[in-house]
Amino acid sequence: MQYATQPTASHYVNGEYLEDTAGDEIAVIYPATGERIATVHAATPKVIEAAIAAAERAQAQWAATSPRERGRVLTRAAQIMRERNHALSVLETYDTGKPLQETLVADATSGSDALEYFGGIANGLTGEHIPLGEDWVYTVREPLGVCVGIGAWNYPTQIACWKAAPALACGNAMVFKPSETTPLSALKVAEILTEAGAPAGLFNVVQGMGEVGGALVSDPRVAKVSLTGSVPTGRKVYASAASQMKHVTMELGGKSPLVIFDDADLDSAVSGAINANFYSSGQVCSNGTRVFVQKGIKEAFLARLAERLKGAVMGDPLDEATNFGPMVSQRQMEIVQGYIAKGKDEGARLVAGGNRIERDGFWLEPTVFADVTDDMTIAREEIFGPVLSVLDFDTEEEAIARANATEYGLAAGVFTRDISRAHRVVAQFHAGSCFINSYNDAPVEAPFGGVKASGVGRENSKAAIDHWSQLKSVYVRMGDCEAAF
Length: 485
Ligand code: NDP
What we know:
Blueprint: E1 11-13, E2 16-18, E3 25-30, E4 35-41, H1 45-63, H2 67-83, H3 85-96, H4 100-106, H5 108-121, E5 129-132, E6 135-143, E7 146-150, H6 156-169, E8 173-177, H7 185-195, E9 203-205, H8 210-218, E10 222-228, H9 231-243, E11 247-251, E12 257-260, H10 266-275, E13 290-294, H11 298-309, H12 330-345, E14 349-352, E15 367-370, H13 377-380, E16 387-393, H14 396-404, E17 411-415, H15 419-428, E18 433-436, E19 455-456, H16 463-468, E20 469-476
Parallel strand pairs: 7-8, 7-10, 8-9, 10-11, 12-13, 12-17, 13-16, 15-16, 17-18
Antiparallel strand pairs: 1-2, 3-4, 5-6, 6-20, 11-19, 14-15
Helix pairs in contact: 2-5, 2-7, 3-4, 4-5, 5-6, 6-7, 10-11
The chain binds NADPH dihydro-nicotinamide-adenine-dinucleotide phosphate.
């Protein structure tokens, strides 16, 4: 790719780009065409060592910097990111294949929101005073130290920023490993943080596959690991971190329910189902892929959805008229094709899509199955592609029980005009993020994260602070200290 903003080397360590061609080659493929647009190299042990050592040095200096100054650096980074939104969005589109129409509003913009939010609250992070009569306790909110961030491939800029912004605000340093499928965008985040005044080594990016992530997680100098990825990877990373008693945040997968009652506004509910299944071509962790539709409106819902799907524009992702892009990789496309085949084999009714689009790149049609039952594979497993399953139900009680009958618990949504029912249903959902008459909104002000197998901890909002800092309690005795002997 001859693109002005393309990163100039594989890694970003100690405030500058770093190359080590001894590492395995990783081809960066533009999903819309299948062409190789760049090549990076996996981090060698030498690169990993340089990154962790740089982070350790920077962290000591950064923790001693006033929180207000730390906040200013993050705020400046947010401004730079916003000013360069267009160029960063183009790069994100090359990295992920997501249409520019999306990347312009959901990636660097969301990243800069996080940098701005945590930049803004950095100097408000305080401990408390706990009176005990004459004596008292005060608490100090301290950083954890060197933290590792590991990202999935669907939102590379956003994931890097959602982890880095609160981590850095709290006085930590970070080594970040993007997914090997989308290695480019996080490097630009590192570049921008340096430009905004972050000390060399504060935010480092190293490339590689799972084993590079594994080496980072098991390094004894690392205090915390924050992973965005699948449940199987989460189990491995959590176990490795637990063996050294490290802090973790796990943002994992889901199979979230979207429950549509027959009093819902039909078009609004169809919009919700589209947002819950086809944004980023379905490659969103919180997607509401089990769409429970009350029997009274099921056929009307399906008819309207099929009609609305005609509005999907699959073209050059860099053309802003395109609103539906390819799968991120050949592998992901094949995984999704496998699920579509299973849906047909197991007796679900294919209502729309289901096919690969015959052109270069990894394109699949937006796909809708109806008459899906709870036991079908497509209703149980995370597909991570544009496959919407419609399941029908009779009663509220039944819908809630079936919605919760999954090992996952990332998100859940409800569409109804009955305000009491909306809150009653949400109160019973086993999910970290819930939506009423909406789906997939993720403002930085709101905590984000899952329950059950979907994860541990929360990103964004004030809640993230608890996951990137620790409290020291200091007991202060005002009189003499006495003892039994
Ligand atoms: P993976 O779990 O395959 O990978 C996630 C990251 O972990 C990648 O960078 C991967 O490296 C790395 N990794 C893999 N194995 C190990 C290991 N043993 N030790 C350390 N790191 C490792 O997820 P995908 O990239 O395929 O992303 C899709 C998944 O992410 C879905 O399940 C989705 O739901 C989830 N997700 C969750 C979100 C949330 O916020 N809850 C948001 C977005 C996605 P590499 O791929 O380079 O091998």
